[in-house]
What does this fold into?
Amino acid sequence: MQNLQKYLASEFEMKSLGDLKYFLGIKVSRSKHGIFISQRKYILDLLAETGMLDCIPIDTPSEQNHKFGLYPDQVPTDKECYQRLMGKLIYLAHTHPDIAYAVSVVNQFMHSPSEDHMGVVMSILRYLKVTPGKGLMFSKYSHIDVEGYMNADWAGSVIDRCSTSGYFTFVGSNLVTWRSKKQKVVSRSNNEAEYRGMAQGVCELLWLRRLLRDLRFAPQKPMDLYCNNKAAIAIAHNPVQHDLTKHVGFIFWSKFCYYKKNNGYCC
It folds into this structure.
């Protein structure tokens, strides 16, 4: 570390400030159990800015199975305010994966927000009041095994009938990446939506494996990908089921073949 600091100091004007404690609204706490990052002050400042410090908190960031869309009779809201709040919530998702899905949904309507969409944003803020001090804990374990979990809905969007898939991955039992994103194509069945989500999860696992290999911490065990759809798992094990996969792009099952051949998988 000292040699690296000397080399950087010879190339750039810099100085060492010691252990990281606070950076861009993210607080970093160190203990014998590991490293904990949170955005408590950032959340409290956001609640104070929006006048939500005295609001009634709720237990979930959004209603379950609620469908959001664009309607001709919707009442518009302040677009600039909506976009500013969305930018802050997207940054908060760096330490709050529990709001990632709700934020990704309302983020799709930044070009034409309505009062209903703003109401969901306010619900997210009310949820954050319950969890301002929550964050991510990175503990030290004796392994760096990589595993991922994924799920997807089917035709969840009432606008274009596209599905939303999400995944999160662990390295050494620590959560490192997560994502919730609407698929680019319309899936013809729930099995296909789950299968496409699995392909995205495999890509993320392969990227993590290459990254760890570059850092000289390559995993020693096969990476595991977990899915709760038996039909999608069966297709991944046997992609030659033409009746089920002939309408799915070749690239999806070819990624599974590569993953099975080089790393092995467990669903």
Remarks:
- The chain has two domains: 34-135, 141-262.
- The radius of gyration is 21 Å.
- The mean pLDDT is 81.
